[in-house]
Known about the structure:
Elements: E1 3-6, H1 18-25, H2 28-37, H3 39-46, H4 52-64, H5 69-83, H6 90-101, E2 105-113, H7 114-124, E3 127-131, E4 133-136, E5 139-144, H8 152-161, E6 170-174, H9 180-184, E7 188-191, E8 194-195
Parallel strand pairs: 1-2, 1-6, 2-3, 6-7
Antiparallel strand pairs: 4-5, 7-8
Helix pairs in contact: 5-7
Amino acid sequence: MNLVLFDFDGTITNKDTFTKFIVSSASPARLIVGGIFILPAFILYKLGVLPASRMRPLVSKVAFAGVCEKHINAKAQGFVCHYLPTVMRKPVLDKIAQHKEKGDRVIVVSASLSPYLNIWCQGLGVEVICSELAVRKGKLTGSYVKGDCSGIRKVIHIKQRLNLQHYHNIIAYGDTEEDYPMLNIATTRFYKGKPF
Length: 196
C-alpha cells in the first residue's frame, strides 16, 4: 500500500476555502468587530511580517469563540454541498480516485478547518488531518486542538497518526512553501501538479 498525502487549498481546490468559510459562517457583527480587532495583525500579515500560520488561528478565534458547534456544523454542511463543488480541480479529484482504486491510503493534510473538511473527506472516502477546532460543552472555543496544521506541523501530525516505516512509497501533493516539510518526507512529490 502506498501512502498518498494531499494538501487541500490550492492543490485540490483552485481557491482558498479557509477565508470563504469564515466569511460565510461567522455573523456579520463578528466579521465587523473582529475585523477591527485584528486589523493590526492583518496589516502585518499583508506586509509579510506575520505568517499565515499565526494569522489563521487569530481569525478563527474571533469568528468562532463561543459559537454553538451544531450551528457551525450546519454551516459546514451547506458549504460542502454548495460551495466546495465550484472550486474543485477535477484532474486532482480524478487522481485521488485513481489512488483509491489502486488501494493506496489517501489522506488530506490541511491547515483548513475541521468542520467542513471532516464532512468533505468522509464523503469522498479519504482520511483527513487538519486544523481541528476545539469544543467545550457544545460550543467552539475558537482555539485549535493541536495548533495550525501547516508547515512542519503537518509532518508532526502525520507522524502522530502513522508509522511512516510501514510505507515503501509516500506520494505527496502540495502548492505552497507551507507544504515543503510534507513534500520532503515523500519519496515521490508533486508541487503545483508537477514533479518536485
